[in-house]
Amino acid sequence: MAATRTWSDLSRGQRAAIVAGAAVEVVLTCVAIVDLVPRPGSQVRGPKALWLLGCAVQPFGPLAYLAAGRRCRRCR
Prior knowledge:
Elements: H1 12-36, H2 48-54, H3 60-69
């Protein structure tokens, strides 16, 4: 059975990588939600509520929305 490691067992670099990764996830999620909420439903591929729930699936939900969930604002 593998021993579990605590935060204090991690090296300084490992802790920095975890904090940086968490910050990236928070920023991506915020950008996706700030873009999704005011955007009209006609400019979103699929139901907005489903995309909002999908943003909770880290890190793939926000990335999927930003890459494929939005329609071009200029394109109709």
